[in-house]
Amino acid sequence: MTTTASAVVTVTDDTFDHLVLRSARPVLVEFWAPWCGPCRQLAPVLDQIAHEEADRLTIAKLNTDENPATMIARNVLAAPTLQLYRDGELVKEMVGARPKRRLMQELEDVLPHFGQTD
Question: Catalytic one among 8, 36, 90, 91?
Answer without folding.
Answer: 36
